[in-house]
């Protein structure tokens, strides 16, 4: 007796939970062969706003954690990714139509990249900050701090590696994230949300939306409670208009990097989403 297959219908990841899109919309995710893989939620403006609320609520706890603690939490995510390595390889192989070896390379590089960024959590401040020479009996220190809530358009042609490349550096500094996953290849983003839900990352620190970046990004670009906009994966959108919309609320904007699908690991990607605070302190005259 043959059995009826149960098609997968995935949800969004907002505030540490898995809600359906408030619009009730979904879209089919297919393999390069055209075979059905799953249904993914198609996020709406309301979903994007809910994600920003969740990210804002989680910001004080995440940014207030010690850098060492943030690093340990991020390391734990890498461990969980390693444990589900076979699943991620299978998803990438099916959805992107690459060989098993290429899919494995992408997953291994994504895990290594996550570990690389985790290692910077308790180190980047010493490198990016400095003591400034001033006249008078004062200490003058410049210290990088998180920008706040960061809205990100993930690379659209790289399902896992591209996603990790933009999310991990934002988290290192203590920012919280609302990320729009690859519209065509969302399965790895959905699986990553399941990893995050079972990790030590507090709910709301990372919020993952699936659906159309062209539909969702303008609302995030103009949202007054979003502090920075990472357009790395928005090369095919009207990103100049998005930058103009972001300027109205004084957002920091990272422009698309030449259409690159996987931004190379760099300390600059961490510091690009920080603000520098300068502190004066009187030297003891005793």
Topology (SSEs and partners):
Blueprint lengths: L25 E5 L5 E6 L3 H20 L2 H17 L1 H12 L3 H19 L5 H5 L1 E2 L6 E9 L2 E5 L7 H12 L3 E5 L6 H11 L8 E4 L3 H10 L5 E3 L8 H9 L4 E3 L12 H5 L2 E9 L4
Parallel strand pairs: 5-6, 5-8, 6-7, 8-9
Antiparallel strand pairs: 1-2, 3-4, 4-10
Helix pairs in contact: 1-8, 2-4, 3-4, 4-6, 8-9
The fourth-level CATH homologous superfamily is Aldehyde Dehydrogenase, Chain A, domain 1
Number of distinct helices: 10
* CATH classification class: Alpha Beta
> Can you tell me the CATH architecture?
3-Layer(aba) Sandwich
Q: Which stretches are low in confidence, meaning pLDDT under 50 for 5 or more residues running?
A: none
Biggest β-sheet: count, sense, barrel?
A: 5 strands, parallel
Q: What is the count of distinct domains?
A: 1
CATH topology-level name: Aldehyde Dehydrogenase, Chain A, domain 1
Radius of gyration: 20 Å
Biggest sheet: strands side by side, in what order?
7-6-5-8-9
Overall pLDDT confidence: 93
Run of helices and strands: EEHHHHHEEEHEHEHEHEHE
Structural class: alpha/beta
**Portion of residues within helices:** 40-55%
Shape category: globular
Describe the model.
- The strands form 3 sheets. A 5-stranded parallel β-sheet has the order 7-6-5-8-9, with helices on both faces. It has a 3-stranded antiparallel β-sheet with strand order 3-4-10.
- Helix 2 packs antiparallel against helix 4 and helix 8 packs parallel to helix 9.
- It starts with 25 loop residues before the first strand and ends with a strand.
- The model has no long low-confidence stretch (mean pLDDT 93).
- The protein is an alpha/beta fold.
- The protein is built from 10 helices and 10 strands.
- It has a single domain, classed as 3-Layer(aba) Sandwich (Aldehyde Dehydrogenase, Chain A, domain 1).
- Helices cover 42% and strands 18% of the residues.
